[in-house]
Amino acid sequence: MENVAGLEISLRPLTMNDFPEVAKWSQDHLFCQANEWTTNRDANELLAWWERCVENDSPTFLRLGIEYSGRLIGYIDLADQTDTSTELGIAIGESSLWQQGIGTKAAQLAITYASKRFRIHHVTAETNLENLRAQKMLEKLGFEIVSQNGSTLFFRKTIV
User: Fold this and answer.
1) Among 16, 61, 70, 124, which is least packed, fewest CB within 10 Å?
2) What are the residues facing 3 on neighbouring strands?
3) Cα distance between residue 36 and residue 51, in whole Å
4) 43 and 79 Cβ atoms separated by less than 8 Å
5) Partners of 86 in the beta sheet?
6) What is the value of pTM for the model shown?
7) Which string of b and e fits 21-55 if b means at least 16 CB within 10 Å?
8) Is 9 helix (H, G, I), strand (E, B) or coil?
9) Quick one: what percent of the chain has pLDDT higher than 70?
């Protein structure tokens, strides 16, 4: 658990009870644009997607909820896991909470978790060239740009 501006941040398993918050995110134009979601997604399609997220049993993919001040505000992905590496993904569902350090703290919690639980030594991430917030966050966390393919930047961090 981390503290940001006096409020607690934690990572936890997703539940179906989180769905009302997720449904709100689908109404946030800035969130949808940043995460390549369709604004105002069909409620049944969104619910089916969330059920798949909650019931996920993939050995190479883990999605955890980001809880902030007692409520779900986003999620962290640890994807494409191997014996030594994983890819980090993050989405803060409420754009009003962006640029407050919450994503950075949540991402650091996820990196620490991956390192301890899965003995990961390398974490990768990718973001669009235009997503300056994500680039700044990754740089704060010690990631370095390792390549670029078109408008996508690829980052890597070695955990010691």
Assistant:
1) 70
2) 8
3) 19
4) no
5) 123
6) 0.89
7) ebeebbebeebbebbebeeebeeeebeeebeebbe
8) strand
9) 96
Q: What's the pLDDT tens digit per position in 71-96?
A: 999 999 999 989 999 999 999 998 89
Residue 48's identity, in one-letter code, is A
Is the sign of the CA dihedral 23, 25, 28, 31 positive or negative?
A: negative
User: What are the E-state strand segments in the chain?
Assistant: 2-4, 7-12, 62-68, 71-79, 85-92, 122-128, 144-149, 152-158
Q: What share of residues in the chain are helix, strand, coil (percent, to 5)?
A: 35, 35, 30
Domains of the chain: residue spans and CATH: 2-11+60-158 (3.40.630.30)
CB 79 within 8 A of CB 91: no
Query: What was the pLDDT predicted at 5?
Result: 46
| 7-48 confidence digits (pLDDT tens) | 589 999 999 999 999 999 999 999 988 888 888 789 999 999
What's phi and psi for 19, nearest 5 deg?
-55, -40
